[in-house]
Fold this protein.
Amino acid sequence: MSINKKNIVLLQGVFNASIFDLLKKRKIKEVFILEGRPSLEAAKQSSRELLKRKIKATLIADNMAGFLFYKKLVKEVWLSYQTADKKGALCHIGGLILGVLGRKHKVPVNIFPNKAKLQLLGRAKDITYFNGIKVAPSGIKGYVPLAEWVPSKYITKIYE
């Protein structure tokens, strides 16, 4: 796979559609999209919107982000958020680790409004099943937080 190491953005969350126009206007050429388990809505929405704007997109599993930072492939992170103030922002689950990684690797972490109100907690079935197929043995419980607070020290810029 050929990767342009100069201008790679990492997107995490389900965004208000205007972010994709902003990326196009900024001439962003390549984007990594985190899948957004368990619903995969982030992958579906971002993929469609980026394809419409002819921006090259690569879909990755949520837990691959650390590897991308380690390989110095991420130059900018965008998280979607429901609400933000001077103390931080309520983002999709996984936003905090991306904020920590961004800070450690000196990569800017921007936040942009979410497409819809975040659900705070999912159902156990959302993680014990994948695409209708049971992936966990009987007796295994599922814990599915879907949102988390990202403190402002991990956020570079808030877009409204």
User: Anything to note?
Assistant: The two ends are 35 Å apart (CA to CA).
